[in-house]
Amino acid sequence: MITKSIVAVATAAVALGLSAAAAEAADLLTIKSSTFADGKMMPKKVANSQANAPTNPNCVGANVSPQFSWSNVPDGTKSFVLLMIDPEGRAPGGVNHWVAYGIPASVTGFAEGEVSKPSDKYVGGKSTQGVGFYSGPCTPPNVTAHHYTFVLIGSGRHRRI
Fold first, then answer.
1. How many domains does the chain have?
2. Model confidence over 68-83: pLDDT tens digits?
3. Is the pLDDT of residue 116 over 60?
4. ∠ at Cα 72 (63, 132), nearest 5°?
């Protein structure tokens, strides 16, 4: 059994969440993006593409991963985990659009488009779509837009598999 100690968690929800200013004022681990504003619709370019999902007409984007940066990293953080979750996706657990772990503590963010493909800055876990890198939103036909949650976890352990 592997024991992991979680140092801190930061969450940015696309439709709802704590404002970055309030989190920074409290010195909490904070994640933000210049690609979209917290609580607002993400731009079309971050949606998945027809090339990746040819049978879904709602996949109209370019699958460009959003820019992310984080701050107020707690002392002792050795690595990060970053998740993108659609809680309204497939029942009962939603859809995991991106699972990245083993992100070194020296990494303080990702440029826009950087994680739309494998990278040496993280280990890609298998998403619901079966890939180890960012896979943008693409709701089923005739369904309203979903909310997407980005979760950043700081860990006191460093583990790359």
1. 1
2. 999 999 999 999 999 9
3. yes
4. 30
